[in-house]
């Protein structure tokens, strides 16, 4: 599932390869992905405009058009979406079935596209002949005009130490549920939360309000370091704990058996010895 690092990779791809290109055509026929817009509504708003900025807060991504004078285009990757620009893609790094991995077969970077073009849920066709696609086997991504972002907390990479402490370090909710609440901190998903808390030696089930100032400062430092490492390595699946999140898995540091439970509605793994 794309989390902040994967969404940042998709944003960077758009920034590097899709900006300053005139939009000549829009395929917005998938009314579920483009809801609440009807077919043709996004095309009417975007054709003739130019993408001029690619932006992100947490796992939410949007593109400005015409220097901010036109509508913004929100693009959400859902559970397994990717952004494809011409012959490059970014987003879900793992996928499943025929869409996993990279291939230049049939002149396309994603091998699933050649046999499953219906998975291209939304397309911008550029005047120079290239295109940007939201490619999503599971059909859980979104393309929407002028997305609402006011409910999001500060980005996990941008939040200051004092602000994180004030936002996270209160209440009786489990720590993992607190840092995954997008209105508290934007961008932390299930895998990134488990990796961050393991790296910080903090229990995911501990009430967030019980953390002291030193622990909250450590959480801030480790969250930034872990997120940046995931961006650099290609996604949250590259974390040190992630391969061990399975039945029979052990802590990569002390070899203790990992504990599995549901926290904040998500499957959670942690070391009962080191994470306190």
Describe the structure.
This protein is of the alpha+beta class. It has a five-stranded antiparallel sheet with strand order 1-7-8-5-6. Strands 2-3-4-9 form a four-stranded antiparallel sheet. It has helices at 4-17, 41-46, 111-115, 161-168, 175-180, 190-199, 213-233; strands spanning 23-27, 51-57, 60-65, 73-76, 82-85, 88-91, 120-126, 131-135, 142-145, 259-263, 266-270. It folds into two domains: 4-145, N-terminal domain of MutM-like DNA repair proteins (Alpha-Beta Barrel), CATH 3.20.190; 161-270, Helicase, Ruva Protein, domain 3. The protein is elongated and about 60 Å long.
Task: Summarize the entry for a quick read.
By secondary structure, the chain is an alpha+beta fold.
Q: Which class do the helix and strand fractions yield?
A: alpha+beta
Return the average pLDDT rounded to an integer. Answer: 91
N/C terminus separation:
27 Å
CATH superfamily of the largest domain: MutM-like, N-terminal
Characterize the biggest β-sheet.
Answer: 5 strands, antiparallel
Number of DSSP helical runs: 7
Q: Mind telling me the CATH class of the largest domain?
A: Alpha Beta
The poorly predicted ranges are 96-109
CATH architecture of the largest domain: Alpha-Beta Barrel
SSE string, helices as H and strands as E: HEHEEEEEHEEEHHHHEE
**General form:** elongated
The percent of residues in helical segments reads: 25-40%
| Beta strands, count | 11
Radius of gyration, in Å, reads 20 Å
Query: Numbering strands along the chain, what is their spatial order in the largest sheet?
Result: 1-7-8-5-6
CATH fold node name of the largest domain? N-terminal domain of MutM-like DNA repair proteins
Please tell me the total number of domains.
2
